[in-house]
Amino acid sequence: MGESRTDCRSEGDEHGPRATSRRPTAEQIERLLLPGPPRYTRKQVAEAAGVPQELAERIWRALGFATHPDDAVAFTDADVAALRRVRTILAEDLLGERTVIRLARALGQTTARLAQWQAEIMISAVSGEGGAPSDRDMARILEIAERLLPDFETVLLHVWRAQLAAAGTRLLTVADLNDDIASGKLTIAVGFADLVSFTQVSRELDERGLAELVEGFESRASDVVAAHGARLVKTLGDEILFTAAAPEIAAVLALDLIRALKEDGDGPDVRIGLAYGPVVPMMGDVFGTTVNLAARLTAIARPGTILVNEEMALALDGVAEVELHRIRRRPARGLGMVQPYVLRAKRAPA
Length: 350
Description:
Layout: H1 2-9, H2 26-33, H3 42-49, H4 53-63, H5 77-91, H6 97-127, H7 135-177, E1 186-195, H8 198-204, H9 207-227, E2 231-235, E3 239-244, H10 247-261, E4 270-282, E5 285-287, H11 289-300, E6 306-308, H12 310-315, E7 322-326, E8 330-332, E9 336-338, E10 341-345
Parallel strand pairs: 4-6
Antiparallel strand pairs: 1-3, 1-4, 2-3, 4-5, 6-10, 7-10, 8-9
Helix pairs in contact: 3-5, 4-6, 6-7, 9-10
């Protein structure tokens, strides 16, 4: 690793990103980012770690890595060390194989998206919005990555620990509100927020304008969700899905989200559907009728309004910040007739 960094910084080395404007090679990128050169084939890395080859390959696949040919030297000493840690976990009976694979899949999918997102941000920062990166840009990105990598590693570990603590705190709150958390179902508030007329707007904007609209919506929405201690489950371009442990948190969050998107006067219109009820958490996502109901309420809602289901309305009875207005029953696809309520901020007395 140290040798590769010297190569990248050397002004006289024709392979270093600072020395020329040549596009960096895959080997240069791997030398910078991977801890050591490849030494092992698929069979050798499993044998060196003392792990069955079938298990090792299941772990690599769960992490999202391609399957290499049998004779390809593609694994490093760090891969051996990682597999040895897995062997220790299994030997001490801390976790079973199924749980290890599930954790590996969660790690792989999350870090793959994180790495792709960070790479795209770096490319746009160096080459400019909408422009294809030149060879000089790519060399510059590699140089910046070399300098910032230690700081990124430290911050990543800190943020992961802080997010893990936040997740644990949320689970404690949910456990306090759920008598039977061991059943696999949790009773929480689920919300969808949807950009109004997104299909029409997307036809009127160029690619850059559309990207700015989506990124602005997602960034503001994620800020509001985080500020209320709720969780942003996923973003779907013109829509976000979030959850909150308590109905009142979700209700105030939804009101603040509509206000936040209109702060500058010309922000996008959104409509929000909230439902309170049982969900099944799985792979960081949530599933079940309550989730489907929140999505259907979002589709029914008028621009700039929030609709909630009857259970949510009952749970919000007596909450000082909000008021609810019952409207006529509506058909919801796949769910039959539902009873929506319009949620509004409570007006101050005249």
